[in-house]
Specification:
With 362 residues, the protein is an alpha/beta fold. The chain contains twelve helices and 17 strands.
Length: 362
């Protein structure tokens, strides 16, 4: 069987799906691996690193897609490339079925096997395949670095002969994977960190990292069986708003990470709440691409509101493409290994397997 991958549109996506390390694992599993010319060169992966382990490079995208049994991408192929897919081929990636429903339905009708990895169940067996966690972990780390580099004061407390500089105070909104990494990173750099989340289960995790958890009454009821946050009631939102609004008076930097799968990001920091932040404060909104947690967030812009800088990017992981590609490629390899029948050397789409059943788009 042939596994293939073509280049993403590098203007919006620098990550790749198959690194040399993982290509070798596929070959050891019994696959042939084919990649488009210059596939990983922009990340420092030369063709020789691939060809030395048996990878074949193909010049034409059409040839690669038509020859591959399995195609692995970061995101859904563009319409021209997707039109080349044939029945019984398999496409694996972050296909975003909530936004791409019409296009995916058309591909399902063509009998293309589509696996969208953001739909993975949160079970122990799927942890090694969990692309949301691996990518969010890096995003939380990088969001802290980006906001700290924009903040025009020192982060840790510094005691000098000329006087003491107080430590910066950071508020992390949303204590999922990205939020917890943001807390850990901010603490390592010497900040005082506060955090809030609609799930009370997050309290222990936040405190284990040295953060102070801001408790909103009723938070224990706002977690799905899958471990995700679910949408809050209007009453809860008002309580959370009052708590955050008061907390902002003593905060220097805010990292927003609150997302609800498949829905517009909840608006948490409203226009009137921004007035409580001091001029010079910084907000990094990781939810920008899904509408943002903050009033006035604009994708790929720094918006200045009365001296408060609000930041958000379409794809923060384009600033860590090598690290994020490495983790993503490992996640996908583990998924393919679970899907592959090694004895008969073919894919086995076993719908009794929770991992396969929940990621397959029907």
């Amino acid at each position: 069987m042939i596994i293939g991958s073509i280049s993403e549109n590098k203007d919006i996506e620098k990550r790749i799906s198959i690194t040399p390390e993982i290509a070798k694992k596929y070959i050891n599993l019994g696959f042939q691996v084919q990649l488009i010319k210059n596939y990983g060169k922009h990340l420092g992966f030369e063709e020789k690193q691939y060809t030395d382990i048996g990878v074949k490079f193909v010049a034409e995208e059409k040839e690669l897609i038509e020859n591959s049994n399995i195609i692995i991408q970061m995101s859904l192929l563009n319409e021209e490339s997707a039109s080349l897919l044939k029945p019984n081929q398999t496409l694996i990636g972050i296909l975003n079925p909530y936004e791409n429903k019409i296009r995916l339905d058309e591909l399902v009708k063509k009998k293309i096997n589509l696996f969208s990895l953001e739909l993975l169940p949160r079970i122990t067996r799927a942890q090694s395949m969990d692309i949301l966690s691996s990518q969010a972990n890096l995003a939380g780390y990088k969001a802290v670095l980006e906001s700290f580099s924009t903040f025009e004061k020192a982060i840790p407390m510094m005691m000098t002969a000329a006087g003491t500089i107080p430590a910066a105070k950071v508020l992390v909104v949303g204590a999922g994977v990205a939020g917890l990494q943001a807390i850990a990173t901010a603490k390592r750099m010497g900040a005082i960190v506060f955090a809030t989340d609609v799930r009370m289960a997050s309290k222990e995790q936040v405190e284990s990292l040295g953060g102070k958890f801001l408790t909103v009454e009723g938070a224990e009821n706002l977690e799905t069986k899958g471990g995700y946050a679910k949408e809050a009631s209007d009453e809860f939102k008002k309580k959370q708003e009052d708590l955050i609004s008061e907390t902002l008076k003593k905060i220097d930097i805010v990292i927003c990470t609150a997302l609800i799968p498949g829905k517009k990001a909840p608006l948490i920091i409203k226009e009137n709440m921004l007035k409580n932040l001091k001029a010079g404060s910084v907000i990094y909104d990781l939810a920008a691409v899904q509408g943002g947690n903050v009033a006035f967030t604009e994708v790929d812009k720094i918006v200045d509101k009365n001296g408060v800088k609000i930041m958000g990017e379409k794809n923060i992981l384009n600033k860590l493409p090598t690290s994020s590609s490495s983790l993503y490629a490992k996640n996908v390899f583990n998924f393919v290994s679970n899907l592959y029948d090694k004895e008969n050397k073919k894919l086995h789409i076993n719908l009794e397997d929770e991992i396969i059943a929940q990621t397959l788009i029907k």
